[in-house]
Structure prediction request, 371 residues.
Amino acid sequence: MTQSSARRSRSRSPSPSVEYAASVIPGLEESAGDEIETRLEGARIIETQRGWVVFQYPGQAGDLLELRTTEDVFVLLYRSHELPTYRKEALPTLTRMARSSRYWDQALARFHQTRARSVKRVTYRVIAQMSGKHSYRRQEVRDAVLAGVQARWTGWKPIEDDAHLEVWVPVIDRWAAIAIRLSDRKMRHRTYKQEHRPASLRPTLAAAMVALSNPRPSDRFCDPMCGTGTILAERALVGPYRALIGGDADPEALRAARSNLSAVREMRSAASLHLWDARSLPIRSGTLDVVVCNLPFGKQVGTHVGNPALYGRFFEQMIRVLRPGGRAVLLTSEKELMRQLLRDHRELRREREILVGVLGQAARIYLLRRA
Ligand SMILES: C[S@@+](CC[C@H](N)C(=O)[O-])C[C@H]1O[C@@H](n2cnc3c(N)ncnc32)[C@H](O)[C@@H]1O
Prediction:
């Protein structure tokens, strides 16, 4: 909210709708935007930045905690596309905005809608994130905002850990925001997920892949290399399905999947889980509607050398078990191998490819359709 945009929205309506922001895995901005507009009635996306989606929502702030593709949600105190380039101007601007934002009261009211805990004395901390080239450091951004909050709320106490309130300051090139975090770690760490394994998928990414598969109640849905079952769990959470099928070659992974899925309270009918080799699936031809899978990248799981053989045989199986028109959503960092496979297997039409950052490495989500 720059001063001028705030003025503009005030002239339209006496109480401007609050602006929120969601942080997302880079690349999932559009998927998260879709979820925000579908799940939150009346929500409107204002803009996206890498890893961030800014939106307005007229309802209760607590509703935002239902989102599944977002890592965290925030209410905004300040937003600008024109953070001054030089430190001498940028840092005082951030201090001033943190101190005198006209949105503090409504932002705190939204914050209290999401928190049951009331405290005698508010403790807080400031977290700065930066990307792009700047003539100042992250620590200086943090200190600048901290100075502003301290000047505004003299009774509040800044602490390092377990603060009651967190003020986040993302700075991306000249875009900057100051925001109060509404979610806690429960948003990104699902309660069902007690068992973790190497290369276990982030639930928010699994949720986005499931959403991209366009879930329908008639789905026979399968994750053929399900690991700890994150994709199956996220599918169970979005609504009815005809069958939920998963498998893995590793008995330990399967045990973890069983345990995680048993903790999903929304599970309508049990998932059927199998110890199998995805290179020869014991599934009848043409009987699956959807395959969603996080393939071994060849780093933590599998090997780069072994992947061409694994992917090649898995592709043949996937084409066999999917019904005509069936959908596949695959995640992998094996860009070249996927290009070759999609060139060789014309039965799979590539509908979209989305670049995502998975723990700092580039990967792609492929949306495919069985011709
Ligand atoms: C990247 S992990 C999937 C992680 C999973 N999405 C999760 O959240 O835990 C890939 C999985 O593929 C399994 N896998 C590798 N080769 C396989 C094969 N030939 N058949 C079945 N599963 C296989 C591994 O055991 C591993 O659990």
